[in-house]
Amino acid sequence: MSHILKTLPAAVALAFAASVAQAAMPSPIDFGGYFRSGFGSASQGGKEACFGLAGASSKYRLGNECETYGELALGGQAYKGQDGFGIRVNTRLAFVVNQNQDWEQFSPSWREMNAVAENIGTGAFSKAKAWVGKRYYDRQDVHITDYYFWNNSGPGAGIENIDLGATKLAYALIRNADENDSKRTALAHDFRFSGIKVNPDGELTLGVQLNQKRVATGAAEIANGSLLTVMHTQGNLLGGFNKVAIQYGRGSGTGTGGINFGANKDDSVFRITEQIMVQPAGTKWSGMGTFVYEDKKDALLSNHTKWTSIGVRPIYHFADNYSLATELGYDSVKPDGQATRHLTKFTIAPQLSAGNGFWSRPVLRAYYTYAKWNDAAQVSARAGDALSSTGVFGSSTNGSTVGFQVEAWW
Which CATH number is 54's domain given? Predict the structure, then answer.
């Protein structure tokens, strides 16, 4: 007993030192990611075909993805102070292959590598964060079309979650370069005011992006530009939400964020993006619907191109892990002075999933997809595409594909 009493103070001291060291040490690494993969065959033979309309910025995804795509994310708390201040590091690799055979070589892309400092001050900055690096910056998308209608991502730095009372302020400075000429760069100054309460369970987000060209001597010019966004999100709606965004851009701001390096200073875009996701309590149904209207003006050619998209994906959940998903999507593109292009796509897919919710993943699917398009869509399609006369369906303006797919995130 005397021996135990003599060693007890030392043991307590060692335990205390270990606890202090543990508090200063980084937390375990977080591992997350996403992938989709599968295979199929077109009705005319060959591998699965995917249907997308020239001039439309997205396509309806269910039973309509012809690649293996994945992301692997690793991150963790690198430092934790006693006053709540902390620094987190985040990394993300992405890869895509054509899904043709066993061995397909691809060099991964570094999509994210950044550090985020949390709780950086007091008062309005007590919950604020500062960050530096390459980042997916507060991207907004429609899931069933994978359409990122607001996406100003890339290498940059910023500060966010500044509490102004009625709203939270974020500012980011993103620098992107032309992939064909690194001397052609531009800065995107991104201001966002979020969490503005306007009705029960509803809030506004206001965004102002101002693009500033930074072109080296001898390089081709880039237009300055701007993108204004007003987005309303309605929560607690039939077990889901409704989100509508109205955007107006000019010059290099005529994309969905970031820099449009090919734009003229007088180019413009007006866009409405709507999505609704529901899963009413007490029913076996869930689903998502979307509507997009976009009017782009090409000042050099003095014409407009109008894109309209509307679609739904209802899902009936037979049991916790069994469901049947269907998807119907329609796109039209009308360039001035040209015939309107049309594409309609329908898919039916029995599913095995990790739960009975719309967002339950992983999910394993079998699918059948049928698509129909018009002559104008065929003429405008790129050579070899499914809608082209040089594609798998030849001169036909309809086709189908059948296959299997897995989609997972964690």
Answer: 2.40.170.10
Q: How far apart are CA 278 and CA 352, in angstroms?
A: 20
**pLDDT for 1 beyond 50:** no
Find out whether 176 and 151 touch, Cβ atoms under 8 Å.
no
State the DSSP H helix or E strand holding residue 375, giving kind and residue range, or none if neither.
helix 375-380
How long is the chain? 410
Res. 313: pLDDT tops 70: yes
124-138 per-position pLDDT tens digit: 999 999 999 999 999
Matching residue, tokens 């734009």: 263
Residue type, 78: A
Cα dihedral: 243, 130, 190, 32 (round 10): -50
> What contacts 253, CB < 8 A, 6 or more positions away?
209, 210, 211, 225, 226, 227, 260, 263
**Amino acid 82: pLDDT:** 83
The three-state secondary structure class of 15 is helix
The pLDDT score that the predictor gives to residue 9 is 42
Residue 379 lies in a domain: yes
CA geometry: angle 33, 34, 36, nearest 5 deg: 155
By C-alpha distance, which of 57, 58, 55 is closest to 336?
55
d(CA 326, CA 310): 14
Asked if residue 186 and residue 236 are part of one domain, the reply reads yes
The b/e string for 107-133 (b: 16+ C-beta within 10 A; e otherwise) is eeeebbebbbbbbbeeeeeeebbbbee
Segment 211-237, tens digit of pLDDT: 999 999 999 999 999 999 999 999 999
| CB neighbour burial string for 53-84, b if at least 16 within 10 angstroms, e if fewer | bbbbbbbbbbbbbbbbbbbbbebebebbeeee
The residue range of the domain holding 387 is 39-118+302-410
**Chain centre distance of CA 187:** 21
The conformational region for residue 82 under phi > 0 = left, psi -120 to 50 = alpha, else beta, is alpha
* pTM score of the predicted model: 0.91
pLDDT at 23: 45
Residues 151/158, Cβ–Cβ less than 8 Å? no
pLDDT (tens digit per residue) in 223-276: 999 999 999 999 999 999 999 999 999 999 999 999 999 999 999 999 999 999
Check: CB of residue 225 under 8 Å from CB of residue 208: no
> How many CB atoms are closer than 10 A to CB 11?
10
One domain for residues 172 and 160: yes
What pLDDT shows up at residue 100?
93
